[in-house]
Target: 1,6-anhydro-N-acetylmuramyl-L-alanine amidase AmpD
Amino acid sequence: MNTLPDIHDGLMEGARQCPSPNHDARPADCAPSLLVIHGISLPPGQFGGPWVDALFRNQLPSGEHPFFRQIAGLRVSSHLLIRRDGELVQYVPFQRRAWHAGVSHHQGRRACNDIAIGIELEGTDELPYTDAQYRRLGPVAAAISRHYPDISAERVVGHCHIAPGRKSDPGPHFQWFRLRQAMRNWSASGSGAGA
Model:
C-alpha cells in the first residue's frame, strides 16, 4: 500500500463492507476525536472463522460453542476489524456511533463511544499481532487521523486504557510504538511509510 485509503460517507476504501445493525447517532457535539484499539477472537483464541462478523450482526449461533451461549444476546459492534491476514472489514460508518467501548472514560469524559472510532484486531492478550495487521493498521489509522484531525497519534488508546480493570485488550504484546511511528511517517510523507 503506497497511498492512504480514502474515506467517503464514513466508509473506508478497500474495506469489505459487512453492515452491523448495532449503531446509532452520535450526540450533536461529538465528532470523532479518539481512536480505540481492541483485540477480539471468537471463540477465544481461535482465528479465521466467521464468528466476529456474526457477533456484530446479531447472528451468532449459541449452539456452535459453549462460549457463544455466554454472550448470547450481546449487542455490540466496532467500526473496523483487521484480521490476522490483514483483511479489513467495516461494520459501521465512522459518522455513526458503534457500540464497542462500553463503560469507559478518557481524560474526564465518560461514554467514549460518543467520540470514538473503534478498531478490532483479531487476536488475544497472549499472542503477538501479525505483521500483516500492523501493515494494514498504520495507514488505516493515518487515514482516519487525516479525515478526523482531532485524532492525533496521542489520541490513539487501547480498550485497556479507557476501561481499566475491566478490559485488558489489545494486550501486552501490542506494539504501540510501531503504530504511532507508522502514523507519524504516513502523516509526514503521505505515501510509502511502513509500519
Remarks:
- Residues 131-147 form the longest helix (17 residues).
- The chain has five helices and twelve strands.
